[in-house]
Amino acid sequence: MVYHATPRPFPDWPFDGVEDWRSADRSRRDAYHEAERAASAQTVAGRTGIPVFKLTSNGPWLVGAQEIEEALGCYQGSSPSLRAELERDDLWVAWLDWLRQTVQHGGFTVR
């Protein structure tokens, strides 16, 4: 459901301070927000599921619907005996239910 990877760094703050941010052209602020959002949503090409760093470190990390669907698909592909064993834990069942619900909302944010 998850995979280990090293996250790429977030973009450096391109402003000289709060006043520079406030006075900056809208397109300059938007470009920074776009770069930050791309870093928050990063995945690793060729890997499926959710990168572990999104669940074990402070974000902001965006976990998208596709990542969640891949993770749930991996879980569904595991052996019935393993799923039965894991699903004896109410917290695990609640986690799976929550993941299924977040797909309907485009994913979730880890802060």
Automatic annotation (TrEMBL):
Domain of life: Bacteria
Protein name as it appears in the record: Uncharacterized protein
Organism of provenance: Micromonospora endolithica
